[in-house]
Amino acid sequence: MDMQRIPAREGNYNLRNYDETRATFKWEDAHKYFSWDKTGKVNIAYEAIDRHAENPSTKDKVALLYSAPGREESLTFGEISAESNKFANVLRKYGVHKGDRIFLFMPRSPEFYISLFGILKTGAIAGPLFEAFMEQAVRDRLEDSEAKMLITTPDLLERVPQEELPTLEKIILVGNQEIESSKYIDFYNEMEAASSSFEIEWMDLEDGMLIHYTSGSTGKPKGVYHVHYAMIQHYVTGEWVLDLKEDDVYWCTADPGWVTGTSYGVFAPWLHGVTNVIRGGRFTPEDWYDTLEKHSVSVWYTAPTALRMLVSAGEDLVKTYDFSSLRHLLSVGEPLNPEVITWGLKAFDLRIHDTWWMTETGAQLIVNLPSEEVRPGSMGKPIPGIEATIVDNEGNEIPPNQMGNLAIRAGWPSMMRGVWNNPSKFESYFINGWYVSGDSAYRDEDGYFWFQGRLDDVINTSGERVGPFEVESKLIEHPAVAEAGVIGKPDPQRGEIIKAFITLNPGFVESSELLEDIRQFVKTELAAHAAPREIEVKDSIPKTRSGKIMRRLLKSWELGLPTGDMSTLEV
Ligand code: PRX
Fold first, then answer.
1. pLDDT (0 to 100) of residue 37
2. What ipTM was predicted for this assembly?
3. Is 36 touching ligand 1 by the criterion CB < 6 Å?
């Protein structure tokens, strides 16, 4: 065991004395980094962008280094500040005010980031949507949040069921197209005409900032609601965990449709005034290595599935690039296999630092710090300011080395402040003052946490969180499908893949064409990442007497495990 521990190297890390900081740190200590310490009012757009734009020494510093197939661009803090002011003016002109929900549905592009900050400057709540979402996924989210406006591209417009969204007043289209409806606003025309000065909306610390929809094991996706105060944790973890320094070139590979892509793809780096690389387009190992090399990336935050793909691409490929600028590597979203850490040591001569958190937690909570020993397979230890433990089903703490539910003492700055439209769901996360994560884990005697799995049926495929209920609901809309049960099936590269068990309606006969048609149906209506990679036809789907699909049993069948107590199975 000890052999596998990887000590920290010598280094000028931002957080060097974990134990001492842990003993003394209070969140209030970090208020001094922000202008609201004096004014009591806040806007994350000011702290992340305008503050650096007002400062003559950082105004012309590159904030955004964008590259995608066919487009390379860079924007300074001054430029993002001015452009997002323009966009905020456009939004105001069309009646956007504090608290309105304004959604973004487009690929990663400079316009995305300009729009996001424009929204935040008006005091509205931003809702980023993953660009791969299809009609049903888009509808669910815009409907539930009662979105007032959407910013999207002409290409994605066909996935927006406008007639079914009565609260959606306007759609801002980014791209050249003929404007045919009074509902559409042309992004570029409006930006040209807009003023680049804007009176930012000063918010209270607890005012709404962002909604990220995420999946649970039951029901539709839920709108996880975050407030401006979360920035304090984005900032502090940017300092301690990402170890950001002024001259860093930082790259987070996550899409801003997911929480990592906002908390750590936007806020943490820019709160620190660091140059942020954004890469559009799809994943290939060559493109990613090119990006690291071309921009001399120094801090890189990515995910286990991507790392495993790099491992498969082989060590020879790594050797053809120059990664001498890279000094700090991090991972999030899924269990990070020790073998990948071992590979990282060989390929980059660097440790990979796993971090654990969730959409609901808003920022990192349990991490491997650069100055601490890494125990491969462990998610690390809680950051200063965070109390983490393992609880039983009643919310009682349990001793080290016993598996239970990973829980965090409620009330940290970036914790979600609600589930949109669903207060009872929000309340259901908390017991005895603990936020209960739904992840099973244990803690060793030294305070390192070890992830074991999910306690519910939520699927984690390539780091993307998928609710089985949503997939099942979509499957049974297909004319051939009578019933469906969906599980995550372990997969060496993607962590899990989605597997569906279905029964067919009378008159339909199993064939590979039919199964492919069903798969495509989910893909085109919900999202590509939610489409089952495997579909198996059964004579019946096991259900409890109350009609609940027994996904656990399906999983046991799949894995060839003992099926345990089946007393509630419908006969
Ligand atoms: O099961 C845990 C897994 O991802 C879930 C949260 O997913 P999401 O809300 O989409 O947020 C992902 C990124 C913040 C968790 O409940 N997860 C996240 N990080 C890790 C992890 N599983 C194992 N190790 C991790 N480091």
1. 76
2. 0.99
3. no
